[in-house]
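Sequence, please.
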């Protein structure tokens, strides 16, 4: 869960669903809207690495982590 402290963001505003095949963004019937880029989200839309998400007036960037992000570095 991500909490955004902004008056334009509803308590339950939007959700990002991450599955094995990718991620999607879904609006939860918010008053001020959820956007992927300039597109207002009404149904679930797929997300790609680097997509801009706007929750009310708050701008975020979606970053898709690859398998390398969970690798543990070992020192020599």
């Amino acid at each position: 869960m991500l909490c955004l402290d902004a008056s334009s963001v509803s308590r339950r505003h939007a959700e990002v669903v991450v599955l094995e095949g990718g991620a999607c963004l879904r609006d939860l019937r918010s008053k001020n809207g959820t956007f992927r880029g300039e597109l207002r989200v009404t149904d679930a839309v797929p997300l790609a690495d680097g997509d801009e998400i706007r929750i009310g007036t708050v701008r975020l960037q979606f970053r898709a982590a690859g398998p390398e992000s969970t690798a543990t570095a070992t020192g020599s």
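DSSP finds no helices and seven strands in the chain.
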